[in-house]
Amino acid sequence: MNDIIVSLIYLFVSCIILILAKGLYVRTLKYDMYKEIASENYTAVIPYCGFLLGNAAILAGAFIGPDSQSTFVRELVYYLLYAVLGICLTLFSGFIAEKCILHKFNNTDEIVRDRNIGTAAVYFGIYLASGLIISACVTGETLAGQPKWYGLVSTLVYYALGMVFLILFAKLHDRLIPYSLLEEIENDNAAVGISFAGNIIAIGLILMRATVGDLGNWQQGLISYFIDITAIVLLLPAVRILLDRILVKGVNIAREVRNNNIAAGLGEAFVIVAFAIMIFFMVDFVGMV
């Protein structure tokens, strides 16, 4: 079949999948997103934007996928399988955000009643980060030369590892910053939520980098995964030095973020994400070992 026709078919199917994903997302919410949008509550749509981008990343990863000699129909079936799995896992990421990360207050009240941008931003970050992690499981040569069930199992395993790491990172981040992360977010400190969301997306990129590639077998894959994570995470403190000493010299970013300086929160978030993007494309610790 002509490559252009194949691409158009995949694009059409992907649009249908995203529409269905939106329907499932809306059904899982504890509030009416359409009603909130109509009332100009922009915080209600911020989490959905992260969910949409996360699933778009999963669809892109599944489309790129490993090279295969399978028929077009079989490849399309596999694509649909990973799409449905990805949607379900990103939806579950919202549950993780509520129960394991933003667990000290009612997330729905913060988004709907208080229009808390910080809370919405954290959901955006978690949905996007989980989408990046899942995308890595079905991209490149990860599945090449492995049994057919390997891709499904590896997706679930690396997703679970990624979520555990995100939860641990949230706990560590809360201990390292000179203020209470959850208290500031609950008190409508948008800068703190935006800054934290940037950190989550950066970690998602790093976990994506640790997951993507030709993993060979489980032992090699897990060893490579933890080498990448350990080595790369040790570089993150350099971001704080870069931010405080070079990009915004003379400004205490942590203090400004605590004072709800949204400019400082955005600056921290985007510098950390930019740093993670550079790591993604430039650093291969496993290859250096």
In short:
With 289 residues, this protein is mostly helical.
Topology (elements, then pairings):
Layout: H1 3-28, H2 33-38, H3 46-64, H4 72-101, H5 107-112, H6 117-137, H7 150-176, H8 181-186, H9 190-211, H10 218-233, H11 237-247, H12 253-258, H13 262-282, H14 285-288
Helix pairs in contact: 1-3, 1-4, 3-4, 3-6, 4-6, 4-7, 6-7, 6-9, 7-9, 9-10, 9-13
Question: Can you walk me through this structure?
Answer:
This protein is an all-alpha fold and 289 residues long. It has one domain (3-288). The protein contains 14 helices and no strands. It has helices at residues 3-28, 33-38, 46-64, 72-101, 107-112, 117-137, 150-176, 181-186, 190-211, 218-233, 237-247, 253-258, 262-282, 285-288. The longest helix is centred in the N-terminal third of the chain and has 30 residues, at 72-101. The chain starts with a helix and ends with a helix.
Low-confidence stretches: 140-144
Give the count of structural domains.
1
* Share in helix: over 70%
What structural class do you assign from the helix and strand content?
Answer: mainly alpha
Query: How far is the first residue's CA from the last residue's CA?
Result: 43 Å
Overall pLDDT metric? 84
Shape: globular
Q: Can you count the helices?
A: 14
Percent in strands = under 5%
Number of strands: 0
Biggest pleated-sheet summary: none
Using the CA coordinates, give the radius of gyration. Answer: 19 Å
Oligomer: single chain
Elements, N to C (H/E): HHHHHHHHHHHHHH
